Description:
This is Extracellular solute-binding protein. Pfam families: SBP_bac_8 (PF13416). It comes from Aeriscardovia aeriphila. There is one protein chain. The protein is of the alpha/beta class. Helix content is 43%, strand content 18%. It has 19 helices and 17 strands. The chain has helices spanning 4-21, 47-51, 54-65, 83-89, 105-110, 119-128, 131-136, 170-176, 190-195, 216-231, 242-249, 262-269, 308-318, 321-331, 338-341, 344-347, 350-361, 376-387, 396-407; strands at residues 38-45, 70-77, 97-101, 138-139, 142-143, 146-151, 154-158, 179-181, 199-200, 212-213, 235-237, 254-257, 273-276, 280-283, 286-289, 292-301, 363-365. The strands form 6 sheets. Strands 1, 2, 3, 6, 16 and 17 form a 6-stranded mixed beta sheet that branches. Strands 12-7-13 form a 3-stranded antiparallel beta sheet. A two-stranded antiparallel sheet has the order 4-5. Helix 1 packs antiparallel against helix 6 (119-128) and helix 1 packs antiparallel against helix 13 (308-318).
Amino acid sequence: xxxxxKIVALLASSAMLVGLAACGNSDAKGGNGGExxxxxxxxxxxxxxQKAGWIQKEEKAFEKAHPEYKITxxxxxxxxxxxxxxxxxxxxxxxxxYLFANDQLGALVDSNAIGELADSVAQQVKSDNDQSMVxxxxxxxxxxxxPFTGNTWFMYYNKSKVSEAxxxxxxxxxxxxxxxxxxxxxxxxxxxxxANGGSLYGPKGxxxxxxxxxxxxxxAAVTKFLAENIANxxxxxxxxxxxxxxxxxxxxxxxxxxxxDAENVKKALGDNYAAAQLPTVAIDGKEQQMKSFxxxxxxxxxxxxxxxxxxxxxxxxxxxxxxxLDHYEMRGVVPTIKSLLNNDKVKEDIAAKAQxxxxxxxxxxxxxxxxxxxxxxxxQNFGKALVEKSVTPDNAAQKTEDWVNQLNKK
Length: 410
């Protein structure tokens, strides 16, 4: 268990962010939005947050911290991944407060469906979090949303088959063990192209005009590497849970996933459970670092809310230290706040450490600009073509160019 003195210290320090959230109109972008003593807030969260009682606990705590409000709560199930599309349909009718995956940020800003953080809250977010997490909720220099967990993937492995040293290089693992990877999943597959010097929308992922730079000789080399190892069976596609099932029955030794699968992987591997940041990979004789997309899940308020001030305050409250600590203890949601990541219990969490190491060392910030909408489907289709072996070592160069041309189609 976490030392009680540490909890007291964490909760005390969290009062700063909660206190900032309680500030007056000058701290809410766009004025008071017509709030009154009687406040009604519609909140969207994933089902798991409601089933575990996390959101209900935070609502009660917010009421206690804000006796000036008499709040009527309405909680609706909308996952972080579905928020963007749901909000865009009718921003004015959307939730007052919602959780979202940061890859939707550009679209939410373009739809005027997300509120800019108050200056004081933005400063606290910058102080509490690593720069990568701050960048994940930044659009054109402005902060939208309070990050509450990192969002990336890393490696799980069976340590009876793969040593800690082996886990540092993918080629070594493919020679000694059975490796399963979501080749036809467009969130995962670019890791190989980033490893060999590719980029997406410029070095920072913010330049839509730069397009996808996954082609040429460097891109063809990656595609050839993937096609060869799919053909020889050293790299198998992880689809529809096959990788996790393989861990359980012993037919797979390595998979790539995130913290959401930690409990299932523990059950599958038992005492042989291990996790780590992404390995290096040798492509064309050069050892390079695989890099995953990394971002965050964050809390935001709707600028169209009739109770904008209260909504902005509650969004900040849900991203505060005490709320993040509750989220971790009640649901295993790994926090972003640096002091919580240094907490003894979190540091002992194998998956939490692997996520933190990945974000810090083996990831790139996932682009959030609207051009990303052109990326997902063509990349998934290209991955499927690799799995189906219609992309081969012989046609790798042409197939790679065809894919990149689709990504850069105007």
